[in-house]
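#structure-requests
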Amino acid sequence: MPDQRVYASSMHSLLLINPNTSVAVTSLAAGHVSEITGSGVRLVEATGRFGCAYISSERCFAVAALAALDCYAQQGAGCDAVLLACFGDPGLLALREVSPVPVIGLAESCMLGSASRAGRFSIVTGGAAWKPMLERLAGALGVSKALASVRTVDVTGGQIAADPDAALDRLLSCCRAAVAEDGAREVILGGAGLAGLAARIQPHCPVPLLDSVEVGARAARDALDQAARDPLEVRQSSTFTGAAEAAVATVGLDPALARLISGGAKTPGRN
């Protein structure tokens, strides 16, 4: 089973879900998230118990959505917010359907923010298969007209996380091309495996670079702050519907995941 760490106990609890099986990527993302959320947040790390080592295709994306739900079923009890730490947001709407607390997606947070702020933005990430997937997501979010381009490098986010120095020049080249050729006014470096690299590239790029993990962490921190101010309002505004639905039969699923999907449990977890 992948390593799952819990930071020091505190007032608020944030569940960070990495829906692939790379513990190293989970730890990388968690380190950057914890810097932003601070010591007042108890950070719970959940790494996919099954699936792909890194999400780099439609089939891996489909499996990751189920893995994200499983992470929530196993470790979501008592959390005050959820951060889905995968750029592309696999399972985001399903998590919102079952969770009574806010669920933040990296790609959604970045795209909506850049579209409203910069008007025209590009995405740079690892893995060619992500280009059509992210273009489709931009359409679903209603920001296709603001998306100047999606540019990818020829290594996956997992490979970038393992050797970031080797990818810096290629990432920078894509960022500069997005500005010069596509007219981007902001560039999003998308992917948990790219956490921390925007700051390293920024001095050499003429427009703001966004670190998707840092953007998601700030959104999660804001959600926790809002929940602390008015927890009832946050829960009432959630899309949580699972507890009100009739139970749905499932076959072959882990018991906690089966309860979550069937609608038979109001809260996740085995107990």
